[in-house]
Design goal:
Strands 2, 3, 9, 10, 11, 12 and 19 form a seven-stranded mixed sheet that branches. A four-stranded mixed sheet has the order 20-18-13-24. The chain has a four-stranded antiparallel sheet with strand order 14-17-16-15, with helices on one face. Strand 11 (184-191) and strand 12 form a beta hairpin. The chain is an alpha/beta fold. Helices cover 35% and strands 19% of the residues. The protein has 16 helices and 24 strands. Helix 2 (33-42) packs parallel to helix 6 (147-161), helix 5 (95-114) packs across helix 12 and helix 13 packs parallel to helix 15 (485-506). It binds succinic acid. Residues 65-66, 262-264, 354-355, 391-392, 394 line the site of succinic acid (SIN).
Length: 537
């Protein structure tokens, strides 16, 4: 990358004294489970603003199906959930963080229940089910496979009832603002076609994931990694960017977007078949359908290649039809919309990008290396997931670390915006007369490139080539000043994709979700650690 691209601090020209201004003790960017929980906690005594790029309903949390993992069953133990999380994390999870998240889970899930979340119940207790990598059924769910929607609706209702939380929807956060000490002092964003500054004593990044960096993804359109890119420009340390988790089973109907088909189906007995009707998973792992996700994803790809097919199938024909419709209403409806009768037909599936393990590095109090800046949820790298995430641990992480971030931000000694000095921020980007490229076209090509070259199976040559191609696009896109979210999103996507490809090239081993065909084994001596990256380093 050239100096200009690498070191451009802001995406837009700024003169803070002539820009619209708002003030918050605590500013939360993003409205998934982590952002909403952070806002609820911070509002105990502080004025909070939540901004989100679309509506409160547009998040990965909303789309979550399987559920939220926690020790809820009397025969389960914290030690077992901790061990499963660490095993799946392949040796690089932060044990302190795992312990914290697992132990806080039951209490916070009980709180969700008290707030009105209609979890599915069995014998008066929250019902739990199984997903891959869990040695005990501990995945709680609500309205069958509508867990994300049900939880988000409860949290949205709650934030709307709290008078000192102001919500700004369709507000695109462009950049974090920092003062001369590089402390975060708020953001510059785009609200109803004008630039808007929000000065804040503390800022919490809960901007979610980045599945849209890939052609095939379960994520909503908003998940373009903006928060991670803006943290990078502000000087935050990013960690684990090479770890993108692919979900083994998303509906494959050519031309339709890739909808999630929850892993819980396999947890409850669905079988993967190839196009010849053969159940192939036992050939790849003794746990078959319930092997960790990275193994199932690679097995599906290998079987697709072996059988020269674009997809495999999930077989749920043995499920009771009425039970299926009640237990998985979302998937049932989705399949029906494509004339797939799950009691007679197989469900066509293939893997797609699902969950960004990497993000802004935080400690166990959700703090980043930038003063007054916290991160939680998918935008953060807390170390919980190590090199691979255990299914349904992400809603749990968002619940726990959202609360931690909100608490820390509201209790910090500098939690009141009236005590904060606002610097004048003036920033001017030099004009560039290089050719304009079509950013919509670049976005599509970038997503295809990431799928091909930085996907489920990686190796050096394609990773280097991806960086070269992205650098070329960056020369023509990063030097421009855009006046709307489409352009800024494209700049953010190019930034994060470049860094992901670079980190994937650096990790010359295979661990968890990162599989290198040229280094197929784990190399503990050199890589049992995290890769950190920050601007200029
Ligand atoms: C699923 O329902 O399979 C997704 C759950 C998760 O990604 O944690």
């Amino acid at each position: 990358m050239t100096g200009q691209i690498e070191f451009r601090r802001y995406l837009v020209d700024i003169d803070s004294i002539s820009t619209h201004q708002l003030f918050a003790d605590c500013l939360v960017i993003g409205a998934g489970i982590a952002g909403l929980c952070a806002a609820i906690e911070a509002a105990k005594g502080r004025n909070v603003i939540i901004v989100c790029k679309a509506t409160l309903e547009d998040s990965n949390t909303w789309k979550a199906q399987g559920g939220i993992a926690s020790v809820l069953d009397k025969t389960d133990t914290f030690e077992s959930h901790i061990a499963d999380t660490l095993n799946t994390g392949c040796g690089i999870s932060d044990e302190k963080v795992v312990d914290l998240v697992v132990r806080q889970g039951p209490e916070l899930i009980e709180q969700l229940l008290r707030w009105g979340t209609e979890f599915d119940m069995a014998d008066g207790h929250i019902a739990t089910t199984l997903e891959g990598g869990h040695t005990h059924p501990r995945v709680a769910h609500a309205h069958g496979d509508e867990t994300g929607r049900i939880i988000t609706e409860v949290l949205i209702r709650k934030v709307r009832q709290i008078p000192n939380i102001k919500i700004l929807e369709n507000f695109y956060a462009i950049d974090l603002l920092t003062n001369d000490n590089n402390d975060c002092v708020g953001i510059i964003g785009h609200d109803k076609r004008v630039l808007q500054i929000v000065w804040s004593a503390n800022t919490i990044l809960g901007t979610g994931g980045a599945g849209q960096l890939y052609r095939e993804t379960t994520n909503p359109e908003v998940a373009t990694g903006d928060g991670i890119a803006m943290a990078y420009r502000a000087g935050a340390i990013l960690q684990d960017l090479e770890f993108m988790q692919f979900h083994p089973t998303t509906l494959y109907v050519a031309g339709a977007s890739r909808a999630l088909i929850t892993e819980v189906l396999r947890g409850e007995g669905a079988v993967l078949l190839d196009k010849n009707g053969s159940a192939f998973m036992k050939e790849y792992h003794e746990s078959a359908e319930l092997a960790p996700r990275d193994i199932v994803s690679r097995a599906i790809l290998a079987q697709m290649l072996k059988t020269k097919s674009t997809h495999v199938y999930l077989d749920v024909r043995h499920f009771n039809k009425e039970h299926f419709a009640e237990r998985f209403p979302l998937i049932n409806e989705l399949c029906e919309s494509f004339d797939i009768d799950v009691s007679r037909d197989l469900i066509p599936v293939r893997p797609s990008a699902h969950y960004m393990i990497g993000g802004a590095k935080t400690d166990s109090t959700a703090k980043t290396n930038i003063e007054n800046l916290y991160a939680c949820g998918e935008a953060a790298a807390t170390g919980l997931h190590g090199a691979n995430r255990l299914g349904s641990n992400s809603l749990l992480e968002g619940l726990v670390f959202g609360k931690v971030a909100g608490h820390e931000a509201s209790q910090s000694t500098k939690a009141d915006v009236s005590h904060i000095k606002h610097p004048r921020i003036k920033y001017q980007i030099p004009h560039s007369d290089r050719t304009r490229l079509d950013t919509a076209d670049i976005r599509n090509s970038l997503r295809a490139l990431m799928w091909r070259n930085v996907g489920i199976t990686r190796s050096a040559r394609p990773l280097i080539e991806a960086q070269e191609i992205i650098s070329f696009w960056q020369r023509y896109v990063m030097d421009k000043i855009f006046d709307g979210p489409a352009g800024w999103e494209c700049q953010n996507m190019l930034t994060i994709c470049q860094l992901m490809a670079r980190c994937a090239q650096m990790r010359e081993e295979s661990r968890g979700v990162h599989f290198r065909s040229d280094f197929p084994n784990a190399d503990d001596e050199n890589f049992k650690k995290h890769i950190e990256i920050s601007r200029g380093k």
